[in-house]
Amino acid sequence: MTTSAASYATEQEDAEPTPAARSAGYIEFVNVKKVYRMGEQEIEALAGVNFSIDEGQLVIIAGASGAGKSTLLNILGGMDTLSSGSVFLDGAELSGFDQKQMIKYRRFDVGFVFQFYNLIPNLTARENVELASQVGLDPLDVDEVLASVGLAERAGNFPSQLSGGEQQRVAIARALAKNPKLLLCDEPTGALDYATGRSILKLLQDMCRERGITVVVITHNLALMPMGDKVIKLKSGLVEQVQINESPLSVEDLEW
Ligand SMILES: Nc1ncnc2c1ncn2[C@@H]1O[C@H](COP(=O)(O)OP(=O)(O)O)[C@@H](O)[C@H]1O
Ligand SMILES: [Mg+2]
Question: Is the distance from the beta carbon of residue 165 to the nearest atom of ligand 1 less than 6 Å?
Fold first, then answer.
């Protein structure tokens, strides 16, 4: 059994064919709008966003606070719905998924990393990773993943016994353990000091290069732009600029 888009598509055989035979990217946002209603007030978090991402790319989403970055990532991760427009992933229309498909998608295909790690405090590092690997269809070996993020020696520690950087490594291991197609990171270094943040970004870059996994990283630090294959700059809910780096820099060569 695979969790490719084809497996979602087959569940919809009787439904209208999606306009999915698009030649564009692996991920595609087409005129995506998101309006939040708060009482009488309407907040347009995304005002018609268009971009594409290729499989295996490392993509930086940049922009000021309130620009719509988290909204965009949450939609891509199946945690929020859009108000209008379409999102395509690997030929399937994500924005047309029913609840069951969405649950499968979140469970099997998406790894999420948050600013404040969100580990379960009464589980060890290993148990946090194990929990995620148990919901995967084709999970990676828990100890191998922990070793790959440099935590083989700390597997038995609880989150409170780990530094911020180490906790974020556990969170990355947890996201990777289910062997997702997509790794989505919302300000993963936002709570870390400079050196620790660098090492986390290096880890994300390595995971993208070594595993061929598509990685999307949100930051408001424009100095990180050169590390991405693609940089999507958001401003007030719109794509202000898309920059393609033919030769992205290694994190080690970045200073900020
Ligand atoms: N659940 C929500 N309800 C109401 N407004 C929201 C919600 N989530 C985000 N917003 C608003 O949408 C805009 C974009 O937010 P967000 O995507 O979190 O921006 P960023 O991550 O770039 O800082 C902001 O004005 C924010 O206040
Ligand atoms: Mg945000």
Answer: no
Kindly state whether residue 252 falls inside one of the protein's structural domains: no
How far, in Å, is the centroid of ligand 1 from the Cα of 45? 6
Closest residue CA from atom 5 of ligand 1: 36
Q: Is residue 149 domain-resident?
A: yes
Ligand 1, atom nearest to 72 Cα:
17
Q: Is residue 144 in some structural domain?
A: yes
Give the closest ligand to the alpha carbon of residue 72. 1
CA-to-CA distance for 233 and 222, rounded, in angstroms?
9
Structural domain count of the chain: 1
Q: Find out whether 49 and 68 touch, Cβ atoms under 8 Å.
A: yes
pLDDT in tens, the chain (256 residues): 444 444 554 444 444 444 444 446 899 999 999 999 999 999 999 999 999 999 999 999 999 999 999 999 999 999 999 999 999 999 999 999 999 999 999 999 999 999 999 999 999 999 999 999 998 888 999 999 999 999 999 999 999 999 999 999 999 999 999 999 999 999 999 999 999 999 999 999 999 999 999 999 999 888 899 999 999 999 999 999 999 999 999 999 988 8
- Is residue 25 a part of any domain in this protein? yes
The domain that holds 88 is classified in CATH as 3.40.50.300
CA 155, chain centre distance (Å): 24
Range of the domain at 164: 5-247
Ligand 1: which residue has its CA nearest to atom 3? Answer: 36
Query: Atom 11, ligand 1: which residue's CA is nearest?
Result: 45
